[in-house]
Amino acid sequence: MIDFDATAYYVVDEATAGTRTQARTFAGDFITGDYSAQTLPSEPTGDPMLPNDVTIQYSTGTMTKGLTFDGPPNSYVEVGEKYILGYDSAGALDSNFGTAGIYDMTLTANNTIDKIHDLIDLDTGWSATTLDSADALNPLNLQKGVYADGSSAMMPETMVDWPYVKTAKLTIDNQHIPLPGVASSVTDSSIKKVLEYADVARGESIITLEITSTAKDETFYDQMVTGTSLPLVRLDFGTNGSIALTNGRIMSRTAGYAAGTEVAETVTMQFYGAGDFTNYSKYAISGDF
C-alpha cells in the first residue's frame, strides 16, 4: 500500500468558488506528482512467508577480522549485501576497480576475503590488506557501509542462527523533513502561496527488526542490559535473496513467564550502519534483490 498526501494552495479561497449546483474546484492549485509511469511490484503469488522460508543469523561482540581498502586519494568504497563498489575522488565508479568499479561477492571468483584481496591488489591504484587471518571467511559478512580510503570494513568470525523463530517484522521508517516556504502555482507562476510543505528533505531512516521466538535462556536480555552491539544480522531467503542489517542495538526485550509453559520473547532492534565516510548510515539495511 502506498499513501499519498496532497497539499493544496487553497483551503477556503479556492480557485473557482462553489455554488448551490456546482462543486468548487481546486484545479491547477495542487503540487502534483505523476506516478503513472511507475510500475509497482506485484503481490506475492504464494502463501505468506513462513519461519522455515528464512534463516536469521546474528553476531555479537568485538570484531578483529576484516579487509582494509587503499585506493587513490579521496577515493572510497561502498560495501553492500552483494556488491563492493569502488569510487574515485569525483564520486564516480572507478573503472580500475573490479569490473567497471564493482565486485560481485556472490561469484565463485570473489567468495572469500583472500580472493577479493588478491584481485584488488591487481587493480591499478588500489590495494587491500586482510586483517587477523580473515582469508577464508565469506566477504558477504563484511559490515555494510561506506568507507574512506585507507579504512577497514570489519566482520564477525562466525554468525549464529537465531533460535526458535516464530515471527519477524522489519520496519523502515523514513523521517522526511517538511520545509516551509513560498511556492508558485503549477499553472500560474504569478500565484505564490506560503506552504508548510513547500519542499521535503530526506531525513534519517529508522530501521527496526522485531523478532518473536521461544526463549531458551536469557541471552538477549543480557545483551540488552549490557548494551552489546549486533554488528551484523542477516535474513537469508535462499533463492529469493537476502537482507543484511548492520550495527544494531537491542532496544527492548519482553517475555512473559509462567511456570511449566513455553516462554516467548520479543526482541526489538534498531540498526545504524557502519563506515566512516559521508552518509554511511544508508547501509543500515542492504539487500541483494
Description:
The chain is mainly β and 289 residues long. The protein is built from 2 helices and 18 strands. It has a domain at 63-155. It has helices at residues 113-122, 219-226, and strands spanning 55-58, 65-70, 76-79, 83-87, 102-104, 127-131, 145-148, 152-155, 160-161, 165-174, 177-184, 192-201, 205-214, 229-236, 242-255, 264-271, 274-275, 285-287. The strands form 4 sheets. Strands 1, 9, 10, 13, 14, 15, 16 and 18 form an 8-stranded antiparallel sheet that branches. The chain has a 5-stranded mixed sheet with strand order 5-4-3-7-17, with no helix packed on it. Strand 3 (76-79) and strand 4 form a beta hairpin. The radius of gyration is 25 Å and the shape is globular. Residues 1-15 have low confidence and may be disordered.
Quick description:
With 289 residues, the protein is mainly beta. Helix content is 6%, strand content 38%.
Task: Record keyword descriptors for this entry.
globular; single chain; 289 residues; mainly beta; 5-stranded mixed β-sheet; disordered N terminus; 38% strand; 8-stranded antiparallel β-sheet; 6% helix
